[in-house]
Amino acid sequence: MRPDAGALAVEEVTDRPGLEAQRPAWEELWRTVPDATPFQSPAWLIPWWRHVGEGSLLTLAVRHHGALVGLFPFYRYTRPETGERLLFPLGIATTDYLDALVRPGHAPQVLDIAARHLALRAGCDAWEWPQLRQGSPLLALPAPAGWAEEVGHADPCPCLALPETVDGLAQRVSAKTLRDLRTVRRRAEQAGALHWETEADGIEEPFDALLRLHAARWRMRGEDGVLAAPGVQAMHREALPALHRAGLLRFHALRLDGEIVAALYGLADPPSRRARRLYFYLSGFDPALERLSPGMLLVGRAVEAAIAEGLAVADFLRGQERYKYFWGAQDQPSFHRRLVPPCAAS
C-alpha cells in the first residue's frame, strides 16, 4: 500500500548533535535499502561530517507516522573563489558513491516532499550531486518547476562479477593474469616469511601501515595522496571501528619478515544483503618492493577471500586504472546531476 503523503513530515538536521541523534533510525533505514552501499551508512558519513565536512549542515529526515522513511544527507557550501552557494551530499570527494536513502515502497512521495522542501529552504545557487549510480534516488528526485537541470556521466566504476568458486575465476579473468598471479606469489614466497592478516587481527597497526605505504607511493609521484590531510585521517580512524562492528570492514595486510609491506582497505555489504559487493577503497605498498608486484598480491588475496565469503561482485570503484581491466572488470556508469533555480540560471 502506498503511504499517505499527508502523513509525511520533514525534519531539518542542521548540527552535529542532531545528525548523531539520527544514528539508530538511520542505521535501520540503511539496512532496509537493498542497494545502499557502506558509503551511505552512518558509520561512514557521521565521521566524514565531523572531520572533513565544511559549510552548514542541511540534512533532511523524512518520517511517515514517526518512522524514518527517507534521509537526504546534504550540506551547504560556498565556494570561496566564486561565492557560488552549493548543496552537496555528505561524503563528497572522499566517497565513491553518493546518495540519499529512501525506504522501499515510499519513493515517489518521499522524493517529492524532499524536492519541494529543498526548493523552499536550501537557498543555494545550485544543487551539485556527483558520483550517483544508475537507479539513484537523487537521479529520480523531481526537478522543481522552472529549474534548469544537467545530467552527465561521472567517473565509471569497473566491476568484476565473481564466480561461486575460486576455480571459476578462469572463466572471468584472463589466463595471463592468473599465470602472473601464480608467478608473483612464488616470487614473494622466495623473498622471505609471508603472513596475511585481516581486520580480525586488528585495525590500528594495519591502518598506520596503510598511511605510511600510501604516502610513500604518492611521494614518488610528487603528490600528497588522498590520505595526507589530518582531517581525512581522523575521519577514517573514527569510522574504522564502527565499520568493523557493523561487519562492513575488509582489511588485508601482508607482512614480509614481520613488517607490513602492503595493505588493502576495503568495505563490503552486510551479510543480510543479496548479491553482496566488495568495494576496493584504498591500498598501499612499499615502493621498494614493486618487483614483487604487491598490488597484484593484494587484489588476488581480496578477490579470493570475497569468493570464499560468497560475495557476488568486486567493485574497484571510480577510476579507470589499467590493472582493474586485467582482472576482467567492466565499467559500470555513474552520473553527475546539477540543478539550478531560475534566478541563478538567469
UniProtKB/TrEMBL annotation:
Signal peptide: none annotated. The keyword Translocase does not apply. GO terms for molecular function: acyltransferase activity. Its EC number is 2.3.1.-. Residues 176-324 form the BioF2-like acetyltransferase domain. SUPFAM superfamilies: Acyl-CoA N-acyltransferases (Nat). Keywords: Acyltransferase, Transferase. InterPro entries: Acyl_CoA_acyltransferase (IPR016181), BioF2-like_GNAT_dom (IPR038740). This is GNAT family N-acetyltransferase. It comes from Paracraurococcus lichenis.
